[in-house]
Amino acid sequence: MLTTTMERRTLQQLEDALEAVGQDLAGRVEELAERSTSGALTTDEQAEYAEIVRLNDLLSLLKLEAEEVWSIRTAS
Q1: Average pLDDT of the chain?
Q2: What are the domain boundaries of the chain?
Q3: For the chain, where are the E strands, in sequence order?
Q4: Which distant-in-sequence residues (6+ apart) come within 8 Å of 2 by Cβ?
Q5: CA 23 from chain center: how many Å?
Q6: Are 12 and 66 in contact (CB under 8 A)?
Q7: Do residues 58 and 20 make contact, with C-beta atoms less than 8 angstroms apart?
Q8: For 21, what's the count of Cα atoms within 13 Å in the CB-facing half-sphere?
Q9: CB-based burial of residue 26 (10 Å sphere; 0-12 exposed, 13-18 middle, 19+ buried)?
């Protein structure tokens, strides 16, 4: 029971962190996306945008893995 509670809390903390990061970066990501669409990104901005996308993908995968582990353990 304690492990399940800890896992649930950890998953919630991960979701909260993802949301906070998303909110913090939302304006910048929107700006970079608009500049990318118009072909106006500098080399540095292209690298920044690519890194944000890479980190977002990584965080999303971590969240999915945490959800999978949690669902398997709660089903047991």
Answers
A1: 83
A2: 2-75
A3: none
A4: none
A5: 11
A6: no
A7: no
A8: 14
A9: exposed
Task: Summarize pLDDT for 38-71 with one digit per residue, the tens.
Answer: 999 999 999 999 998 898 888 888 888 877 877 7
Written as six digits, the tokens of 4 are: 């399940």
Between CA 42 and CA 47 the distance in angstroms is: 9
- Block residue for tokens 């492990």: 3
**Token pair belonging to 50:** 């690519």
End-to-end CA gap in the chain? 12
- For the chain, what's the residue count? 76
Q: Is the separation of the CB atoms in 8 and 21 below 8 Å?
A: no
Residue type at 20? A
